[in-house]
Design brief:
This protein is of the alpha/beta class. The protein is 54% helix and 15% strand.
């Protein structure tokens, strides 16, 4: 086992990793909880495992910046001050003139630089994140005259450390589901391009070798960036300005953009996005304030789950609107057409009020808790400017309302004719038949409103227990309005005989009967096609 602290260069690297660090580990807790950035936490664990734990006597700090890609601290020592720097290897190499050895220091030659860059490329292709470390000693006088830029020049390279930040196990599944749903994940990171590409491939974001670095983005016009943003899935070594430009480019291309971020530098891009998403655990307060949504668990799969739930809620809103407006249009047209045709009022005001408050309300509320339909995450995203009544919903509502009104008038006319055949016009009977038919038609209609893509026979009748309870409750209340001796004078109703019920239920459920025949026929046809394919 290597005694890390016995090697001068390795010992200095470990001390650099320890001091250029804001992470904390609760060693008294049996679970050893980490507070801070996971990358810095990994470096802190490395130092602790090597047996080093000193006091962080930091007298000056230049915080990490995504443009500089460096972090610098100055630590007080016995014979002056020591500057520790960590950051991206390709940036730090340009600021180093020497390299630390066991016996001292040596000139950092071009050959050694190439060896380090080659090692970074090799590790990056295995999804390792590579950080470089350097240092130099300063006297108190030198420290006083050194600005931030001077602190990070003429450094002594200590070496590099590679670490794996593995994606969560469910990340690949979530990415796959997003792609099926028409949601395109794009990785925008400050990591080394090869590392970013390897991680993106591991979770299924891309299968291509194309990755655009921040330096390339600087060379692109806004129009060229729009074209690239629609085809490239990995952007690496980017600055906050690059992230902001990419988000603007995607929005300009007509996409709805959701941007995740955790650091202060991510805030502009998060704010610019249609949906800004901040990390709840590692995110800064500024990013959370700029975002529309905060992830409590910092897990990408939570975003996918939120999209699933959002689509289900939007579907339920459409179902709710479809049902209530369809029923209300039917009621309005019933009264309007009866007046135009010179017919007696088919419904009394108290009957209309009963329908709206009791038999409409309960099923409509139950539609609001309808479970998600099968394949909700296999649909393409809807346009953000799409109307609530798009995809034929408006015409469907009008068509269904017209059907309900016409059939209600037909039932009302049948009731009048039945009264004439009995020797007198019985408006109470005709209105009871129309009143009951209107309720029955709406209770059958609510079953159809459970899905815009599937019939009740395909989606099933018992997936929403609240809806079944609401339908039974409404049917029972309507039965009381028709047969209760106390309620009959209130609603001006009379009992109905079996043939009248048969006519009412047959006409109200006529469309459902048609759907049943169509569903059975289509399944038989599907079975026949499968059988023919097997034989072929």
């Amino acid at each position: 086992v290597l005694d890390a602290l016995a090697n001068n260069a390795v010992s200095l690297l470990i001390k650099c990793a320890y001091h250029c660090n804001h992470a904390e580990i609760d060693l008294e807790n049996r679970e050893q909880v980490l507070y801070g950035d996971p990358t810095e936490g990994a470096l802190l664990v490395m130092a602790l495992k090597a047996g080093y734990k000193g006091s962080r006597d930091v007298v000056r700090e230049v915080p990490f910046d995504s443009e500089r890609k460096l972090m610098t601290v100055v630590v007080a020592g016995d014979n002056g001050f020591r500057v520790y720097v960590k950051g991206a290897l390709d940036v730090l190499l340009d600021r180093c003139s020497r390299i630390a050895r066991q016996a001292g220091t040596a000139v950092l030659t071009d050959e050694v630089r190439k060896r380090f860059l080659g090692l970074q490329q090799e590790w990056a292709q295995e999804a390792y994140r590579v950080l470089a470390f350097a240092y130099k000693d300063l006297s108190e006088a030198e420290l006083e005259v050194s600005d931030d830029a001077a602190l990070e020049n003429d450094l002594i390279l200590l070496g590099v450390a590679g670490m794996v930040d593995p994606p969560r196990p469910q990340a690949r599944t979530s990415v796959s589901r997003c792609l099926r749903a028409g949601i395109i994940p794009v990785m925008i990171t400050g990591d080394y391009p090869a590392t970013a590409l390897a991680v993106a491939k591991s979770v299924g974001i891309t299968t291509k070798e194309r990755v655009i670095a921040g330096s390339e983005i600087d060379q692109l016009t806004d129009k060229e960036l729009v074209n690239c943003a629609e085809t490239v899935r990995v952007f690496a070594r980017v600055s906050p300005q690059h992230k902001f430009r990419i988000v603007k480019a995607l929005k300009k291309a007509g996409h709805v953009v959701a941007m995740t971020g955790d650091g202060v530098n991510d805030a502009p891009a998060v704010k610019e996005a249609d949906i800004g998403i901040a990390m709840g655990i590692n995110g800064t307060e500024i990013t959370k304030e700029a975002s529309c949504m905060v992830l409590a668990d910092d897990d990408f799969s939570t975003i996918e789950a939120a999209v699933h739930e959002g689509r289900a809620i939007y579907d339920n809103i459409r179902k709710f609107v479809r049902y209530l407006l369809g029923c209300n249009v039917g009621e309005v047209l019933t009264m309007f057409l009866a007046a135009v045709l010179g017919m007696p009022l088919p419904l009394l005001p108290i009957q209309i009020l009963w329908v709206n408050l009791v038999t409409d309300g309960l099923p409509a509320m139950a539609l609001g808790v309808e479970p998600p339909e099968p394949g909700v995450m296999k649909r393409k995203p809807r346009p953000k400017n799409e109307s609530l009544f798009a995809r034929g919903l408006g015409l469907g509502i009008l068509g269904r309302g017209l059907f309900i009104s016409l059939t209600t008038l037909v039932i009302f006319t049948v009731g009048i004719v039945c009264g004439k055949l009995a020797g007198q016009v019985d408006l109470a009977l005709a209105r009871t038949m129309a009143f009951t038919y209107l309720v029955a038609a709406q209770l059958f209609y609510v079953l159809e409103c459970r899905s815009e893509q599937f019939t009740p026979f395909e989606i099933g009748f018992f997936g929403n227990k609240f809806l079944i309870a609401a339908i039974l409750s409404s049917a029972m209340l309507q039965g009381l309005a028709v047969y209760s001796h106390r309620l009959q004078p209130v609603f001006d109703t009379v009992p109905l005989c079996p043939w009248q019920w048969l006519m009412i239920l047959g006409l109200a459920g006529s469309k459902m009967c048609y759907q049943a025949v169509k569903t059975v026929f289509s399944r038989k046809l599907l079975l026949y096609e499968n059988y023919a394919k097997i034989r072929a």
